Structure formats: structure tokens, C-alpha cells
Automatic annotation (TrEMBL):
Keyword Secreted: yes
Subcellular locations according to the entry: Secreted
Organism: Sander lucioperca (Pike-perch)
Ranges in a coiled coil: none
The protein, known as: Prolactin
Pfam families xrefs: Hormone_1 (PF00103)
GO cellular component terms listed in the entry, alphabetical order: extracellular space
InterPro entries per UniProt: 4_helix_cytokine-like_core, Somatotropin/Prolactin, Somatotropin_CS
Family: Belongs to the somatotropin/prolactin family.
């Protein structure tokens, strides 16, 4: 009986590990798409970005998620626990629910030749973001209370990105640059989590 119990416990542990690895694989793939899409969008916008925009666009420290303390490089990220890394990724992702809706609405009237394409890509961002969020919610349930902690990072930028052409382009570009920055962090954190789950050496992560 004791031997059978040990086998059952081992099988449960193995299934749990496989489930987490599988979820991390899928989450990592989605976060990669999210970051790639935001990078493509940034390149699309650059083609019509006014030179003055680069001078007066707000700094990254003005992003609404800038107050969240995150690792500044991979070395620091490798020192953070799995639960805390997942908590950071979920906090960043959830903080973009409202701003992505603002980008989506604003894209409909964006003064840009590729407006239609940009609008479609923003909708894709919203869909991938929601799907990734759902997956991370399931994952957090398997990784304990610390992973389920989410920092509050309210967006207070409002729904209006500006009246004139230059203001609209600058504010849209700024908001997207903040998302691109955060999507890179989310992608990095999830790749490190996947790497750890696969028990790779730190230098291979």
C-alpha cells in the first residue's frame, strides 16, 4: 500500500510538472507574439512620426507602469523567485487592459496612412493579451498565493489622446512604446520561468 501511495504521489507530481511546463510553453509563445506585434506596430508608426515628436515625447519613466519595481536585466531576473516573476508578469499585463482599449479606439481615427492596418494589429494585441492573461491566471493557480498577487497600476491617461495630428501621433506612439517596453519584460520573465521549469542551466536561459 505504501509503495502504491508513493507511485500515485509521484504520478500526481509528474502530471503537475507537465501541466505547468505545457502552460509555460504556451504562455511564452503568446508573449513572444505580443512583443513581436508591438515592435512591428512601432515600426509602422515611425514612418509618419514627426521629428518634433522625438523631442517632446514623454520619457519611459512617465509610463503608468513605471512605478512597479522590476528586475533591470536578466541577471537580476534570475535572482527573483518563480512566484514573484509570474506576479510581475501578471501585474504588467493586467495594467494594460484599459490603455489597450484606449489605443484601439484611438486607432480608428489615427492620422496615419496605415491607419487600417494599425487598427487591426491593435485588436490583435488585445486578443493575444486577453488570451495570455487567461493562461497566466490558470498558471498562477498552480504556483501558489504569491503568484496570485497583482500590483495595482491604474491608468490615468484618460480616453483622449489629443486634438491635433501631432498630439495624436505623439501620444499614441508614447502609449505604444510603453506597452512595447512592458511586453518585452513580460516575455523575458516568462522565458526565464519556462527555462527554470525545464531545469536548464541559468546561462542557457
Amino acid at each position: 500500500n505504501r509503495h502504491k501511495k508513493n507511485i500515485v504521489l509521484y504520478m500526481v507530481a509528474a502530471c503537475r510538472a507537465v501541466a505547468i511546463n505545457d502552460l509555460l510553453d504556451r504562455a511564452s509563445e503568446r508573449s513572444d507574439i505580443l512583443h513581436s506585434l508591438s515592435t512591428t506596430l512601432s515600426h509602422d508608426l515611425d514612418s509618419q512620426f514627426p521629428p518634433i515628436g522625438r523631442v517632446i515625447m514623454p520619457r519611459p519613466s512617465m509610463c503608468h507602469t513605471a512605478s512597479l519595481q522590476t528586475p533591470i536585466d536578466k541577471y537580476q531576473a534570475l535572482q527573483v523567485s518563480e512566484s514573484d516573476l509570474l506576479s510581475l508578469a501578471r501585474s504588467l499585463l493586467q495594467a494594460w487592459e484599459d490603455p489597450l482599449a484606449v489605443l484601439s479606439t484611438s486607432a480608428n481615427t489615427l492620422p496615419h496612412p496605415a491607419q487600417s492596418s494599425i487598427s487591426n494589429k491593435i485588436q490583435e494585441l488585445q486578443e493575444h493579451s486577453k488570451n495570455l492573461g487567461d493562461g497566466l491566471d490558470i498558471l498562477s493557480g498552480k504556483m501558489g498565493p504569491a503568484a496570485q498577487t497583482i500590483a495595482s497600476l491604474p491608468y490615468r491617461g484618460g480616453n483622449d489622446i489629443g486634438e491635433d495630428r501631432i498630439s495624436k501621433l505623439i501620444n499614441f506612439n508614447f502609449l505604444l512604446s510603453c506597452f512595447r517596453r512592458d511586453s518585452h519584460k513580460i516575455d523575458s520573465f516568462l522565458k526565464i520561468l519556462r527555462c527554470r521549469a525545464a531545469k536548464m542551466q541559468p546561462e542557457m536561459c
